[in-house]
Amino acid sequence: MVADPRFFARPGRVDDPHSSLSIAERDRRWGALRARMSAAGVDCLLIWGKGRGLGGNCRWIDNADFGERCLVFPLKGNPVTMWTISSWSRWFSESCWEGVEYIGAEGKDSVAAAGVIAEYGYSAGTVGVVGLGGAGMGAEGAMPYFTWRNLQALLPEARFCEAGALLRELRMYKSDEELRLVGKASEIANIEIDAALRATRPGVRESELYALMEAAGLSAGADPVRDYFTILSSGKGYPTNRRQTDRLMRSGDMVQSGIYTRYGGYWAHPHMAISMGPIDPEYVPMREAVLESTHAIIAALKPGTPWSEVERIADEPILRRGYYHEITHVHSLGLDGTEPPVAVMSAGTLPKEAGWRRPPVIGSVRENDEWKAFAATDPFAQRAVTVEPGMVLALEVKATLQDRIFLEFGPQVVVKSDGVEIQNPDAMDVIQL
Predict the structure, then answer these.
(1) How far apart are CA 188 and CA 215, in angstroms?
(2) Are 348 and 318 in contact (CB under 8 A)?
(3) CA-based radius of gyration for the chain
(4) Interatomic CA distance for residues 95 and 165, integer angstroms
(5) From CA 104, how far away is CA 82, in angstroms rounded?
(6) How many C-beta atoms surround the C-beta of residue 118 within 10 A?
């Protein structure tokens, strides 16, 4: 039983996962989405919720906690979510918000989606597609090419347009109910940090520390993790973004962890660094750089600040000292562990001597004429992002030197109208034990 004031139980559905958000929240989302669709002349959305960082698009609408799926959201009529199994229709239907219907598509997603779109009378209307195009690390989208081509063949009179930004901008700023669940996920992350502080000592294995942290989180009510995992490493070296091993931790180690915890579908993602004893002298200037950048980002997170300025401020203290980074310093999150906006992924002068480092990939799908034509149909073409209240951001500031040594820490924060709420204060600096 979930006994927490942020859990919105409803009569008859007290123990169901989807009860973590109220019917009022459902109506807010559906109303806002339909208003944007109407303004853009979009009759129906087909949302492809398969692929890393895309599942949240479907969950934001149907509030169901099961696997990757796709969903049809009409301007008028009930949303229809589509997953694999048809014989479990009742179970999956009852796992969604009230008012969501379910189809067991058995892998025939284009056929099922075209049928629903036609049933609602939009076979000759404008269908916005989410997940065919993409951005960032998912720049080439996730919908299979033959799914797309078959959908076009089944709906020859429909006009299709890119609609990723239409939904993305609504998800970027969280409601009060969403922020309550984000806050709970951050509390659970803090419980895992406390477990790490109790258990980190020489002679403990990385795998044992990881298990203790995960157990503490699950005991505190965390959702079982489906798509993301906590990363944990010790010793001195690079890279540290890996799963834990059976290595015995030793005095003098720098133990670093990127924690993922989830509650009611919403993620928290602080990064923690623990020095087992005095900080190694090589880490001291790196700590100064990461600490300066962390505080500079927090100071910059004020309503109206351009996101490009946040990126510049995050990088400057790191690059000025001659370090570099290969993973974003700050990104949004919510129903997905990484959501837009995402700061630049790599910056600084990366070493070129290592034999394993291939030259950067040149070119882009954006040079493809078919991609250009489809992207041009977006009624909400990507606009400049500004910091606004309701943004939830994971800071994971890092400094790397010569592919040899690496330091990272940073809390999760929520942007408020009057400042930033720091949800993981122990992640603000290296902790010395």
Answers:
(1) 11
(2) yes
(3) 23
(4) 27
(5) 6
(6) 15
Q: Which two tokens stand for residue 225?
A: 């993790």
Predicted confidence at residue 366, as pLDDT, reads 83
Q: Apex CA 211: angle with CA 209 and CA 217, to 5°?
A: 105
CA atoms of 339 and 122, how far apart (whole Å): 30
**Residue 152, token pair as written in the block:** 């076009």
> In order of start, what are the domains of the chain with their CATH numbers?
17-172 (3.40.350.10), 176-432 (3.90.230.10)
Q: How far apart are the first and last CA of the chain?
A: 36
Give the dihedral sign, CA 329/295/187/340: negative
Q: Which of 406, 241, 409, 391 is nearest to 304 (CA)?
A: 391
Q: Pick the residue with more confidence: 299 or 229?
A: 299
DSSP string, 408-424: EEB-EEEEETTEEEES-
pLDDT exceeds cutoff 90 at 51:
no
Nearest to 70 by CA among 84, 86, 52: 84
Residue whose structure tokens are 């001291």: 284
With 0-12 CB in 10 A as exposed, 13-18 as middle and 19+ as buried, what is 304? exposed
Q: Which of 5-9, 43-47, 163-167, 428-432 has the lowest mean pLDDT?
A: 5-9
Q: How long a stretch of residues is the chain?
A: 433
- Mean pLDDT over the full length of the chain: 90
Name every residue whose Cβ is closer than 8 Å to that of residue 79 and which is 6 or more positions away in sequence.
Answer: 30, 61, 62, 71, 72, 73, 99, 100, 101
pLDDT in tens, 309-342: 999 999 999 999 999 998 999 999 999 999 999 9
